Records
---
Amino acid sequence: MRQQRYLSVLFIIIFFSATLIKAQEVEDEREFDYGEKSEKGPKMWGKLKKEWEACNNGEMQSPIDMSHERVRIIQKPDKRHYKLCNATVKNRGHDISLQWHGDAGSVLINGTNYPLQQAHWHSPSEHTVNGRRFDMEMHMVHFNENATNKIVVIGVLYKIGKPDRFLSKLIRNISSMIDKKDEVKNAGMIDPREIKIGSRKYYRYMGSLTVPPCTEGVIWTIKKKVRTVSRAQVKMLREAVHDYAERNGRPLQPKHKRPIYLMAPDDTA
Ligand SMILES: *[C@@H]1O[C@H](CO)[C@@H](O)[C@H](O)[C@H]1NC(C)=O
Ligand SMILES: *[C@@H]1O[C@H](CO)[C@@H](O)[C@H](O)[C@H]1NC(C)=O
Ligand SMILES: *[C@@H]1O[C@H](CO)[C@@H](O)[C@H](O)[C@H]1NC(C)=O
Ligand SMILES: *[C@@H]1O[C@H](CO)[C@@H](O)[C@H](O)[C@H]1NC(C)=O
């Protein structure tokens, strides 16, 4: 009798701990991934959730190839005013992101100010230039809730070469969160001005976020100058994210006749 009761208690414990483990697994499950043939891969994103429909139905999706651009000479280039600000590094599972908390400054585009919120990395690059894909792409995401087009992303392309100084600074923080989805680490005060962005020439077009919900109306700035990152740094970023996102570049999307401008500042002004 006693033994039986003992056994049923034991059974209940085993049963509940098994369902608990299962529940955790479900929670940890990827929401989307990058597998070409996966049922949660880029071709399926728009079907996974109602709020993600734009990923499949949108007509202004990103990334696209930067070719056949029209050159536009501009007198008032975008102005960046970044500031030293407290930041955290987060492993989002599908990428590593650096989030600023407080005023990290902003970019001024055609009279509208867009505060900087976060930066993250994709490898290989998402945007291509004349069909060429690069080894990495960093996105600096800016947001102004009052603007018509609320999101501005500045993209920087990298090819393998010398290490990127900015990533080198974050190496300890990033390598301490390998495979730890949702882990957040305090990175201390990080100055966005230390991100080497490069030349004043850039491509400009209207697109979307490159991950679900694929929100459109994003003002894209892709810097023309290609910078360098070391093989070890790309490897570190890939190891830190989950296996399903080691290669976290979304494939190219239809252009739908959208104009792409190469903005060249008027140096004689
Ligand atoms: C930065 O953020 C961390 C974590 O939120 C906090 O503990 C720390 O006090 C902040 N530092 C400054 C200088 O604001
Ligand atoms: C800049 O803003 C003005 C006024 O809001 C608008 O008329 C113009 O089309 C904008 N220019 C660009 C390039 O977006
Ligand atoms: C948006 O408008 C609100 C209310 O006027 C203001 O407090 C806030 O700073 C504005 N946001 C930006 C990014 O300008
Ligand atoms: C993250 O980076 C900051 C600044 O380099 C450093 O002070 C902190 O100890 C790092 N944290 C971890 C967990 O590596």
---
Amino acid sequence: MRLWEMRKLLLVWELLDHQEAIMLAGLAFKRKWQQKRKAEGKPFDKPNIVTGANVQVCREKFASYFEVELKEVKLREGYYVMDPEKAVEMVDENTICVAAILGSTLTGEFENVKQLNELLTLENKETGWDTPIHVDAASGGFIAPFLLPDLECDFRLPLVKSINVSSHKYGLVYAGVGWVVWRSKEDLPDELIFHINYLGSDQPAFTLNFSEGASKYAVELVLCLFQQLILLPYSFINIDICCKIALNKSYTMPTDVQHIALLRVVIREDFSRSLAERLVSDIERLKGNGCAPRPHYLV
Ligand SMILES: *Cc1c(COP(=O)(O)O)cnc(C)c1O
């Protein structure tokens, strides 16, 4: 989302360590859910979060550290992201949110947030719950708004209450920096905000760290402004994305599709013909070794 759109649209954002941002977004959902359950006189000791088994380790960490049961929608051969229908089937009264991923860490695919929003709206209507959606746009958040502006996967969908983005996946910032943005002030429980005045004025804070160097955030803000004011945002973002893309990763898939090993190939701007030829010959060699590589998803 471009900054000028963000200014109009959003009331609450935090520029943080990205993992911290993810923890805090989850904590806000947990606390909101607990408040509601307390007000209704219902038990509030068994929160769960629904997500695909393609989940990034940060969400497993959140579930463990903040004592929230992680309910994973299974993957199946040929379908490596969260199936919205199955996700909604797993939702119950203790679900703090469904976390969808824009840019699965495994394959880069986007989950269908729009369909999830539709199905969950129906489920909420039937049951009287109001289960919200979180969008983990760690890698997709800086792509979708520019390349796929009509893809509804953000605050255009009423159940989407918060979105996180990882800045450092696109370079030009220090490693680890990220954002979390909430739809409105109401989606961030007041009791989680601490007010300090160590520097002579009221400073609301929602962080896990206390004293911390600000340089990494300053660099990101300055670059964002620079990008806004001086460079054409589109060309800048495109170059930025391309420069970052340099990785070949291999890993086995999660439970249920563990027998599949994945080689992720991301092509960057300076990918040359000779590199392409080397890649093809490597793949051919794999075939010769009895492997049967199959392309799954190409951007
Ligand atoms: C990379 C990634 C994260 C974690 O991001 P970091 O900035 O590396 O901490 C979280 N979720 C998804 C889907 C990711 O791809």
